[in-house]
Amino acid sequence: MRDNWKNRLAWLTALKEPVSAALKTPREVAAFEIRQYFEQKGLQVQIAVDAAMGESYAIEKTENGFCVRGGETGVLYGAYALILAHQRGDETPKGMQTPYYPLRMLNSWDNMDGFVERGYAGRSIWFEGGKFCYEEDRIRQLGRMLGSVGINVLCINNVNVHQPAQHLIDDMLPEVGRIADLLRPFGVRLMLSIDFSQPISQGVGTADPADPAVAAWWADQAKDIYAAVPDLAGFLVKADSEHRPGPNAYGRTHAQGANMLARALKPFGGVLVWRAFVYNCLQDWRDQRTDRPCAAYDLYHPMDGQFDENVILQVKYGPFDFQVREPVSPLFYGMPKTRLALELQLAQEYTGHQIDLFAMPPLWRDVIDDMGKENAKAIAAVSNLGRDDNWTGHPFACLNLYAFGVFAWNPDSKAEGVIRAWVKNTYALDRQDESNLVALLLHSRDAYEKYTGSLGLDWMVNPHDHYGPNPYGYEFDLWGTYNRADRNAVGVDRTEKGTGYVSQYPEKWQKLYGDPKKCPDQLLLFFHRLPYDFVMRDGRTLIQRLYDDHFEGAQEAEEMQAALRTLLLPEPDGQEAAERMEKQVRNAREWRDVVNTFFHRFSGADDAKGRKIYD
Ligand code: GCU
Predict the structure, then answer these.
(1) Is 304 a catalytic residue?
(2) Residue 364 sits in the same domain as residue 459
(3) Whole-Å CA distances, 185 to 23, 108, 433, 482, 527
(4) Separation of 249 CA from ligand 1 center, angstroms?
């Protein structure tokens, strides 16, 4: 049935009436949502708009209900906060609430042919066959989901801009404008990914950022764009990265490239988001000196202070690429004069394809604690959405979208609290089931990490697809992703004696990461190359710890399956979760056996507990 998504309200189960096309402003949506939720509850809720409050809101108790005071979007955020808290039976937030990061962006990696790069929830909700193709009702429901957790910018097209996506900023502008209109009532502004080389195909003949004709072309284009979408948030750019065009081709720096584009956007208040995911993707595995994690800092640190004020440098949380465990990118400590955005990935590319459970709040808590929330000025996440009825493939993967909004608003959020809130708003479970589901989700990342890449052993996945084990899959490849396991040792020495990566960190981190006796276990083999009989802090040898983690991780997946079976979930969520869990358990066993055998063959070490390791 085409319309099945209409019954899948994600965490907005309290709001069954769809938002109609007649509602044009956030305050109208706020009033509508409040009416539909509180009407039956005998509580009176007023809305008081004070434009100066912008995105902020305050919820005040009145004699027979509440008053939501806030700016135009503030009242919308306040209305949703009140409704969701009331449904959960929680206290409403006290005092003035203001989002910590002013830009809270969702980046879709949707191509115009309908394929979603790293998408695990079906095809694009925006595009098909090179054209826009969407259901307005569905986009309004999406707007509501984003607005309900305060996500205020949405980039609809992939950072890898394939044709015909270039036309989004010319011929297709009227259609882009219609989408902006659909999302505006929810406080969501559009952003577009652009192709740095676009002036070439438009008769300018070059994309050199220092050429005045190029700057003039972008400035002109910006006029047309803002005529169609007056509140466009700006452009998102992937340049000189994984074969995308960029300023390097002309001998220009990334600051020159970014500033040229930023100046075109500036008269209209737009921002230029430039991705820092730049490294040599044509490496030779024989070369032990080039170390991919060093790349972004080496490139951008010297440019600190050179970017215009409306440029945001968007940095993935770790120096590699959304692995299960990475240290925080050293750029967060080394670019004090540049506005940085933290980039997270909701799409479970390396974290289980929305088949295996991976609730992200515990990961983000670690990342933000290490990064220092003030070292970023904005936050972005790669979307996990698609055309599947339940939006995210796995019904529980919606948690990650919800939680992203909550963390973007308040980066001090606690993982368990956010997970519990999502569970309560999504499912009406009894207390025991609720606690069991919260525990399952809270623990899911640990289990996944143990059966896949424990101790900081990244990249042992099947190449290209990135699901399932393949310890040698990326070993002789050109992407700079090596574990260098041999019969004596495993891991990469990134200390001063090795690749020197550790020296990109401030002293406190250098001391922690640089010493294998102090380095957190989960990052040990990211920073150090160690023999299999290295004795860890808890007295176990390295090889024994690798075996233990993989046995435990697979067992924990089985325990999660047993726990899931006891839950009384509504259908079809129960069935969908059970089917995926079946696959997860198979995947976890495969990881356990492949990784254990891989290391057993190298090390020759037996498992101290005598468990089965295949020859
Ligand atoms: C990863 C991912 C790509 C994506 C890239 C990016 O490498 O596998 O699909 O394009 O990240 O973030 O740009």
Answers:
(1) no
(2) no
(3) 7, 20, 36, 47, 48
(4) 21
pLDDT of res. 136? 97
Percent of the chain at pLDDT exceeding 90: 99
Active site residue 369: no
Atom of ligand 1 nearest to the CA of 345: 12
Strands 153-155, 271-275: pairing kind: unpaired
Report the percent of the chain where pLDDT is more than 70.
100
Query: What would the pLDDT profile of 546-590 be if each residue is shown by its tens digit?
Result: 999 999 999 999 999 999 999 999 999 999 999 999 999 999 999
Residue indicated by tokens 């999660």? 560
Q: Is the pLDDT of residue 504 over 80?
A: yes
Per-residue tokens: 580: 């995926």
Task: Give the domain range for residue 128.
Answer: 104-426
pTM of the full structure? 0.98
Based on the domain organization, do 289 and 341 belong to the same domain? yes
Instruction: Give yes or no for residue 159 CB within 6 A of ligand 1.
Output: yes
C-alpha dihedral sign at 220, 221, 224, 229: negative
Give the residue whose CA is nearest to atom 12 of ligand 1.
Answer: 277
CB 348 within 8 A of CB 404: no
The Cα 457–Cα 326 span in angstroms is: 9
The pLDDT tens digits for 163-200 are 899 999 999 999 999 999 999 999 999 999 999 999 99
Instruction: Tell me which of 170, 242, 309, 369 is the catalytic residue.
Output: 242
Asked whether residue 528 carries a pLDDT value surpassing 80, the answer given is yes
- Which residue shows structure tokens 């890449």? 453
How far apart CA 590 and CA 588 sit, in angstroms, is 5
Contact 353, 478 (CB under 8 A): no
321 included as an active-site residue: yes
Q: d(Cα 464, Cα 452) in Å, to the nearest integer?
A: 16
Residue 109 Cα to ligand 1 midpoint, Å, equals 9
Q: Whose CA is nearest to atom 2 of ligand 1?
A: 118
Q: Which of 196, 242, 314 to mutate to test the pocket of ligand 1 (most atoms within 8 A of CB)?
A: 242
181 CB-near residues (< 8 Å, 6+ apart): none
Between the CA of 404 and the centroid of ligand 1 the distance, in Å, is 19
Average pLDDT, the chain: 97
Q: Closest residue (by CA) to atom 6 of ligand 1?
A: 277
Domain boundary residue, one of 62, 88, 114: 88
For residue 29, what is the domain's CATH number? 3.30.160
Q: Which of 321, 326, 356, 573 is catalytic?
A: 321
Are 50 and 71 in contact by the 8 Å Cβ rule? The answer is yes
Helix ranges (H only) for 375-517 are: 398-409, 415-426, 431-451, 507-514
Measured from the Cα of 241, ligand 1's closest atom is: 13
Ligand 1 atom with least separation from CA of 343: 12
How far away, in angstroms, is 496 Cα from ligand 1 center? 29
Q: What are phi and psi of 57, to 5 degrees?
A: -150, 160
Relative to beta strand 530-531, strand 489-490 is antiparallel
| 192 occurs within a structural domain | yes
111 and 62 in a single domain? The answer is: no
Q: pLDDT tens digits for 4-48?
A: 999 999 999 999 999 999 999 999 999 999 999 999 898 999 999
Q: Which residue has the tokens 């959405």?
A: 385
